[in-house]
């Protein structure tokens, strides 16, 4: 093919020849375009043919894929005339775009995929703004071909394309500009609500297509940035951080990343001679004005320069240097990999960088290989390889002259044999990130002073790796023991029944490295010398010419001081105390819901086990995709129990039964699981049967035998199950248990009841069941906030169910919102919420049945306005009047030991589980939707007093996956002659993170006209026994507060008096959420 005759596609899409032409600009510069050669590549042999082409060409980056063909871009032999810097002005941006269009680098519409500047009407300064336009889309992990490109072009900016797990975290691919993506990796244990407590450090990196997966890259090799970052976090070298990858713009990449056209590097890079440049200002403005705010708003990353880095490789490394020049003070660290400092006749290196006084980022990582040029080309040019190394050394010397110190704020790596490829940059990424992010520990430790231990992530995740950091100096028992003797002993779930073991603790990796660096910075150091190539020795004589020595720091600027580098973390860090921190790495089992641990010195026999209580950490149980996809049919088949059935069984270990799905669906199959060990009178009976019916026994009545399951068994846990199909018109399931020989467990005559929700709509879209609605709302000012009184609509069901619901269902909910409440702008994860029972007695004295309310609104408002607690919402559900005991008790109350409560003998009970189901499945979703409250158990509390205090303890055992905090005031543990305490002893499941238990010494006598000290002592002993049981089951180490108030009785005034302290204890952790 004749040189100078580039291929061009005709209207039919086929390549066709056109006349060679020279491009002419207003300044008279003329030159031939590069030659573009197209060749077909079949779909089946595409990968192999492209690989073969890579081996035949000098520069693999000159190979691109168009449709079903491979296109080579070959440099012309005719060189442009060499012009002096002051000869005439360089081509304008529009002229560079015209070059790209004319030379078929991009088409006329694709040229606008780069970011072009426009003049702001509000200012006469040279400000720029980024305009979204079309561009070429590189295929992502989930996108390929024309369809993926069309989707990328048409998508809304900052809309999520797809998300997938990666290296223990998640990779979100987000549409940015038309055809360009943001690839955002969040670390293991990432939590948006956690970021509101302490924002995540973040690294913004160019060339997002090359960072995470091999498929989107042209070379077939990515940086594997997620694996590198996760490895550093899991090893304790860095705290958790986020990576934001920003896609390049395809063939207009050089335009976005360079301040000037690249030129040809004195003939070494003829392929780049006609490439455009000059758009870096517009690109960086878009990064600062669009991407940074989006990432901070959506992913909770830090806006502090000290916790924010920027970087890239090749032209992307030049872009990182330009970010420091154009936007000083925005980024605190720079990653500059293999910077193409040869571009534009070294103008950036020789003029722009020396002219920039500062301030520079506090930490800069610069790296270069010794075979950057020759290592990827057939033609060997060792002199240009040496020149590129000398550029890196010259850049390092310049940075030193601006106050950066090698080994502290500056790290320079010259790697022997390394080339200009993603593989080389991937190899160095771990050390680069480990250096750049080391100072992030200063911010982390600013929040950890005086703590005995903490974990990364702060909230452990089931099935995820974690690191525990232990401050030996804070241990009273182990402070003076040898560091190398300390070990952590741990286990998971109640009675340490899952996983666990012993792990020897080692010095904290990241903290030790930071302390070493700060110690070196505080002591005099000899003058720095340029780094030798890795692997070279003084005796070795390289075959290629040696790189020219860099200029000395003093020759550049001897008067500049380290104050010219800024944006380092300012938090105090005691380097001496860092030696006290040890770490241990472990993996949380997938079935874990809590962790128990203690520390020991091994053979010395000394233990720090929280004074015998052991230490505790809550584990968040996330549902995997496999678990979420587990169907009822799979559960019915039983086999090995796994997925959400096993997860439900663990969190409902203290319950007598549960169903799959957890809320039955009309017209759908279901499975009923019964814990045989909790069936009264049938605990060891192998002939266990269930008699059930729907809609108050009006339809579908059957009696079926239950069979053993393969679900996990333990002490007092033995799950049996049966299958059923819920009728299409069902609104509730009622069942009793029997052996068909006269022994029955019918919940004390109340039956066991499960709610049934409506099925999916006909269009297949799943819609949440809303059996309750809001009939009216009355709002009024109250306690500096607002009190909303919601009247609920009647529950739906058959005529018999409707009549029964008239006496038992919840009719009114009172919601107090704090000062400044805004449902449109809630805190991350929603407002914390306290759910109280006996709503009539919560807010207003005139409505309370004894003339005194809990005054919950005033107490909450006082704590919030004084800054002791974060703003939170209080939801109070009115009781059902005469049927209050039915809803709040798991069985009828009886008359108490010795008959001291004969008045309660005929009161109903046994409807507590049905009430909790209505509360969790009907009322709470309604409140979450209207008032933007959280559904995270760590930010949801349950409370009540007397019978509702029993309900609170029941919620602690059966619903800790819903309520992370529980307030139980004066619980009526005398019911059923103390049977509830027996149920508490049998419990072996999860418990809430915190529980407050309060009572008085005159619970009986203070509200009656006669004294019964024996009954007062009995009621107090019940509460003391309950506290003892909770402690024995793991509620230790600050999780349980048991308060006995001298002389206090069983009434709202006593509960009001204790409420302030209870809220402080239970809800202070909400600041951390």
Automatic annotation (TrEMBL):
Origin species: Volvox reticuliferus
Molecular function GO labels: starch binding
Skewed-composition ranges (Low complexity): 534-543, 553-563
Region Disordered, residue ranges: 521-563
Compositional bias segments (type: Pro residues): 524-533
Pfam families, A to Z: CBM53, Esterase
Source domain of life: Eukaryota
Signal sequence bounds: none
InterPro entries to which the protein is assigned, alphabetical: AB_hydrolase_fold (IPR029058), CBM25 (IPR005085), Esterase-like (IPR000801), Ig-like_fold (IPR013783), Mycobacterial_A85_antigen (IPR050583)
Protein name (Swiss-Prot/TrEMBL): Carbohydrate binding module family 25 domain-containing protein
UniProt domain Carbohydrate binding module family: residue ranges: 463-620, 667-757
């Amino acid at each position: 093919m004749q040189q100078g005759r580039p291929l061009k596609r005709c209207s039919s899409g086929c390549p066709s020849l056109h006349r060679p032409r020279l491009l002419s600009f207003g300044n008279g510069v003329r030159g031939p375009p590069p030659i573009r050669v197209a060749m077909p590549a079949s779909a089946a042999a595409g990968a192999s043919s492209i690989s073969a082409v890579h081996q035949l060409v000098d520069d693999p980056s000159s190979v691109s894929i168009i449709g079903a063909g491979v296109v080579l871009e070959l440099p012309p032999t005719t060189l442009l005339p060499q012009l002096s810097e002051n000869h005439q002005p360089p081509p304008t941006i529009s002229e560079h775009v015209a070059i790209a269009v004319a030379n078929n680098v991009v088409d006329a519409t694709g040229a606008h995929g780069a970011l072009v500047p426009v003049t702001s009407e509000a200012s006469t300064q040279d400000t720029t703004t980024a305009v979204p336009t079309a561009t070429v889309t590189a295929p992502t992990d989930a996108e390929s071909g024309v369809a993926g490109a069309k989707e990328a072009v048409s998508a809304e900016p900052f809309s999520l394309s797809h998300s997938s797990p990666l290296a223990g975290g998640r990779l979100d691919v987000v549409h940015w500009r038309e055809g360009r993506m943001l690839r955002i990796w969040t670390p293991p244990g990432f939590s948006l609500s956690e970021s509101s407590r302490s924002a995540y450090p973040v690294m913004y990196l160019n060339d997002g297509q090359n960072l995470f997966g091999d498929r989107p890259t042209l070379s077939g090799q990515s940086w594997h940035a997620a694996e590198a970052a996760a490895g550093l976090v899991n090893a304790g070298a860095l705290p958790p951080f986020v990576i934001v990858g920003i896609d390049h713009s395809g063939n207009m990449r050089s335009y976005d990343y360079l301040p000037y056209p690249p030129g040809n590097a004195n003939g070494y890079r003829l392929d780049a001679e006609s490439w455009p440049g000059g758009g870096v200002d517009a690109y960086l403005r878009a990064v600062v004005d669009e991407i940074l705010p989006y990432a901070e708003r959506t992913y909770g990353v830090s806006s502090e320069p000290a916790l924010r880095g920027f970087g890239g490789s090749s032209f992307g490394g030049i872009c990182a240097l330009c970010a420091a020049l154009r936007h000083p003070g925005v980024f605190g660290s720079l990653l500059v990999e293999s910077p193409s400092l040869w571009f534009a006749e070294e103008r950036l290196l020789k003029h722009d960088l020396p002219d920039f006084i500062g301030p520079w980022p506090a930490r800069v990582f610069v790296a270069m290989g010794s075979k950057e040029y020759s290592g990827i080309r057939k033609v060997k040019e060792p002199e240009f390889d040496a020149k590129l190394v000398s550029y890196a050394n010259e850049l390092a010397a310049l940075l030193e002259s601006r106050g950066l110190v090698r080994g502290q704020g500056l790290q320079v790596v010259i790697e022997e044999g390394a080339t200009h490829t993603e593989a080389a940059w991937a190899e160095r990424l771990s050390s680069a990130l480990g250096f750049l992010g080391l100072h992030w520990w200063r911010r982390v430790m600013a929040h950890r002073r005086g703590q005995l231990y903490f974990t990364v992530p702060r909230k452990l995740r089931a099935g995820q790796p974690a690191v525990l950091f232990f401050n030996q100096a804070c241990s009273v028992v182990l402070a003076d023991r040898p560091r190398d003797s300390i070990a952590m002993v741990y286990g998971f779930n109640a009675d340490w029944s899952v996983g666990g073991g012993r792990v020897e603790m080692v010095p904290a990796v990241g903290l030790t490295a930071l302390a070493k660096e700060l110690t070196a910075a505080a002591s005099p150091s000899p003058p720095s010398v340029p780094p030798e190539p890795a692997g070279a020795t003084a005796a070795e004589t390289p075959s290629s010419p040696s790189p020219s020595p860099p200029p000395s720091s003093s020759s550049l600027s001897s008067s500049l001081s380290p104050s010219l580098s800024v944006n380092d973390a300012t938090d105090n860090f005691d380097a001496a105390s860092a030696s006290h921190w040890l770490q241990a790495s472990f993996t949380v089992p997938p079935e874990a819901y809590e962790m128990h641990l203690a520390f020991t010195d091994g053979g010395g026999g000394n233990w720090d086990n929280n004074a015998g209580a052991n230490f505790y950490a809550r584990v968040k149980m996330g549902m995997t995709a496999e678990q979420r996809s587990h169907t009822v049919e799979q559960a019915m088949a039983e086999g090995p129990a796994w997925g959400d059935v096993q997860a439900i069984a663990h969190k409902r270990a203290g319950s007598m039964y549960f169903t799959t799905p957890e809320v039955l669906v009309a017209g759908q199959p279901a499975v009923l699981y019964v814990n045989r060990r909790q069936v009264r009178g049938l605990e060891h009976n192998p002939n266990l049967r269930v008699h059930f019916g729907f809609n108050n026994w009006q339809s579908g009545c059957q009696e079926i035998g239950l069979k053993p399951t393969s679900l996990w068994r333990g002490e007092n846990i033995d799950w049996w199950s049966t299958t059923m199909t819920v009728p299409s018109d069902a609104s509730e399931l009622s069942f009793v248990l029997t052996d068909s020989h006269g022994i029955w467990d019918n919940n004390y005559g109340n039956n066991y009841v499960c709610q049934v929700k409506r099925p999916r709509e006909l269009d297949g879209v799943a819609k949440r069941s809303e059996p309750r609605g809001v009939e009216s709302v009355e709002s009024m000012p109250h306690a500096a906030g607002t009190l909303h009184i919601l009247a609920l609509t009647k529950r739906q069901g058959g005529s018999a169910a409707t009549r029964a619901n008239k006496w038992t269902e919840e009719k009114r909910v009172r919601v107090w919102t704090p000062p400044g409440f805004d449902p449109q702008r809630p805190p991350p994860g929603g407002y914390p919420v306290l759910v109280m029972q006996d709503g009539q007695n919560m807010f207003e004295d005139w409505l309370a049945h004894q003339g005194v309310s809990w005054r919950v609104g005033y107490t909450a408002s006082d704590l919030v306005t004084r800054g002791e607690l974060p703003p939170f919402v209080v939801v109070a559900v009115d009781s059902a009047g005469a049927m209050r005991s039915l809803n709040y008790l798991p069985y009828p109350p009886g008359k108490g030991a010795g008959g001291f409560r004969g008045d309660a003998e005929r009161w109903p009970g046994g409807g507590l589980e049905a009430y909790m189901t209505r509360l969790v499945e009907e009322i709470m979703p309604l409140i979450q939707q209207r008032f933007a409250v959280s559904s995270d158990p760590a930010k949801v509390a349950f409370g009540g007093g007397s019978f509702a205090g029993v309900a609170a303890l029941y919620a602690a055992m059966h619903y800790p996956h819903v309520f992370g905090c529980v307030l139980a005031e004066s619980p009526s543990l005398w019911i059923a002659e103390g049977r509830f305490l027996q149920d508490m002893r049998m419990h072996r499941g999860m418990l809430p993170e915190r529980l407050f238990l309060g009572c008085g010494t005159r619970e009986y006598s203070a509200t009656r006209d006669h004294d019964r000290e024996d009954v007062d002592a009995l009621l107090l002993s019940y509460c003391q026994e309950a506290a003892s049981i909770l402690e024995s089951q793991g509620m230790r180490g600050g999780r349980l507060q048991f308060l006995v108030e001298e002389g206090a009785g069983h009434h709202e005034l006593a509960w009001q008096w204790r409420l302030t302290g209870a809220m402080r204890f239970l809800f202070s952790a909400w600041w951390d959420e």
